[in-house]
# Entry
Amino acid sequence: MKLSGKKALITGGNSGIGLATAKLFVEQGAQVAITGRDQKTLDEAAALLGPGARAYRADVTNREERKQLFEALAKDFGKLDIVFANAGISGSTPTGSTDEAVFENIININLNGVFFTINAAAPLLNDGGSIIINGSVHNYLGAPGYAAYAATKGGVVSMARAIAGDLAPRNIRVNVVAPGATKTPIWTRGASSSAPDEARQKRVAAIAAGIPLGRWGEPEELAKAALFLASDDSSYVNAVELMVDGGATGAPFGAPMFRQ
# Structure
């Protein structure tokens, strides 16, 4: 097993990529702490993960809740070896009609929340540990209506490089795993969730047609990439952005929509 004896924290570990990663980490021998804001999904995730994991209800953007979380982690886990700063949200912020509060909330969760999670975790991290940040293809796509989300995902890449420099004397590696379209609950929230099934299916198919591999990713595939970055398999990989997007950013003209 690749993570025997390791202790990991995964924020937003109660669903989607975070939950799939927590499951894989437990299977690979790690003790895992997951966080989330919804107690119901946290309880369900904890039941699924079994005794190898502990769940903590916490909003990583809330200073007091974050403080309580890391006090609990210090008591329950002692030290950490891996931090996966995965918690984040999407949201539409079209230029010219976006409410400031909506924009600022996305920035607060996806950028500020990531930094202050890592900032609080750093004293608990063992030297030689691994930090992973969840990025996105939206760092590159220029998708209309996603200015705030794209800004946060570009921001975490630059931030990861700076943090890698900060923590280099401790041999702590800092990397970004950047998903493309992935089958997670984030795609069933908001306006798209209320759209008719036929409309949503057309959107799913249209996105798949723009991916060279011709399909959406599975959460388990992102979990495997996170495992690589968390384990000694990537012992000389540092300050990189690992794209896990079916080729959407690297070879976009290989997508089915351009091969027809």
Observations:
- The chain has one domain: 7-259.
